[in-house]
Design goal:
mainly alpha; two-stranded antiparallel ribbon; 13 helices; 2 strands; 77% helix
Length: 421
């Protein structure tokens, strides 16, 4: 207990620095891949994508992420095992943040889109299993997370495959693709608006005292979706088919219509990501602050102070602005060639999968989901449309993420234990 009392301030400062570093990694790697489809398909410029990310990541984190985060991430550790030795939890969360941050930095430098969720989970499992006890880890939870490696990309891949097929059947393969694009794109915009407002009302507003119930939420969401659709239709009015646009590419005018749609799906993806992944950066930080503030009490849940969310949010934005371009290039350009219509199918499928997972409490990786969705769009155009070498490298980086996080975390854990005693 004396270590917490003697070094409390130093430990909190270290947690803030490591937490910011981890959040920086989330921005550079995870938010970048969430925005990769929009930038890669040229529907948005890098500056526009960053602006959308700043607004909707924050909104997602605050509205759909919930004010109370289970700070011992996803119930991976049994807090009862740590009640007599709170300093071990503090060292562990510090080492998890730093280990995950280092791995994300390495992956981002290589341009690999890896999972921040799995980076932090691997780091926590590593320190808990080796530094505390193998029994301190809820292995059934870890099993669910491993299962999500398969479930999330496959689900998103299937959804994006059929979404893009619907675009081909309704619009691209018809006699009048531009006319049909203007006809059907508002319907797609309606779906985006409905999905995002549904998750906000059913899951996100409980902590601000609003819980409208499923039926009321559906009615309100239809209203929000209609407003979104009308806004989209007003924007579409400004787009006209010009023969000179279509000289190099037959569907250039059609893709302009999808460019408007991509703005909405980019907002949806940023919102979905914020709701799901901001806790990766701030959860362990909140755990350290909670233990130090309570003088050494280990709680399964603790309230999330607003300043921690702000620290996490600013770290994420800094990472995206400073180093996000590497992973944006991988997801946006290197897996398969993206146009706004393909990017739309991938982004909407990924956002829908993440939103459903957030609602059902499944630990899911936004990265795996989005890459799966991009692969689904590529498959809809035939296997030759995919860069299989890049896909192979991405899969290997996914497999390495959990053990890499664990190994780094174990080394840092014993280093901290040695320093503080």
């Amino acid at each position: 207990m004396s270590i917490i009392a003697d070094y409390g301030s130093i430990l909190v400062i270290m947690a803030c620095v490591f937490g910011f570093f981890m959040a920086w990694g989330v921005g550079a790697n995870d938010v970048a891949n969430a925005m990769g489809t929009s930038v890669g398909s040229k529907a948005l410029t890098l500056k526009q994508a960053i602006l959308i990310a700043i607004i909707f990541e924050f909104a997602g984190a605050y509205l759909a992420g919930g004010a109370v985060t289970a700070t011992i991430r996803k119930g991976i550790i049994d807090p009862a095992m740590l009640s007599g030795t709170p300093e071990l939890l503090v060292y562990g969360m510090l080492s998890a943040l730093l280990a995950a941050g280092i791995w994300l930095l390495i992956a981002t430098m290589m341009g690999w889109p890896v999972s921040t969720t799995h980076s932090i989970v691997g780091a926590i499992v590593g320190f808990a299993a080796v530094g505390v006890s193998v029994d301190a880890v809820h292995w059934d939870k870890v099993g669910k997370i491993v299962a999500s490696w398969v479930v999330s990309p496959v689900t998103a891949g299937i959804m994006s495959f059929f979404l893009y097929r619907s675009v081909q059947v309704l619009i691209l393969d018809t006699k009048h693709p531009f006319k049909n694009a203007k006809k059907y794109v508002p319907m797609y915009i309606f779906v985006v608006g409905f999905m995002i407002s549904m998750v906000t009302f059913t899951k996100g507003l409980k902590h601000v005292g609003l819980n409208p119930g499923f039926g009321s939420s559906a009615i309100i969401s239809v209203g929000v979706a209609l407003v979104t659709m009308i806004l989209g239709m007003l924007m579409l009015r400004k787009i006209h088919a010009r023969a000179e646009d279509n000289v190099d590419y037959h569907f250039a005018s059609v893709e302009k219509v999808f460019g408007v749609l991509m703005m909405f799906t980019a907002c949806a993806m940023a919102f979905a990501h914020g709701s799901n992944d901001v806790a990766n950066a701030v959860g362990p930080l909140a755990a350290v602050v909670g233990v130090v503030a309570s003088g050494g009490e280990v709680a399964q849940k603790s309230a999330m102070p607003v300043w921690i969310l702000l620290l996490g949010g600013s770290g994420i934005v800094a990472g995206l602005v400073m180093y996000g371009h590497k992973v944006i290039a991988t997801v946006g350009n290197n897996i398969t060639e993206l146009t706004p219509s393909r990017g739309f199918a991938a982004t909407l499928a990924a956002a829908s999968t993440v939103v459903f997972a957030s609602g059902t409490g499944l630990p899911i990786s936004t990265t795996h989901t989005l890459v799966g969705a991009v692969l689904g769009v590529g498959m809809a155009r035939g296997l030759s449309a995919l860069n299989l070498q890049v896909v192979g490298t991405i899969f290997v980086s996914w497999l390495v993420t959990l053990p890499a996080g664990a190994l780094l975390s174990i080394i840092i854990f014993f280093t901290l234990k040695g320093i503080f005693g």
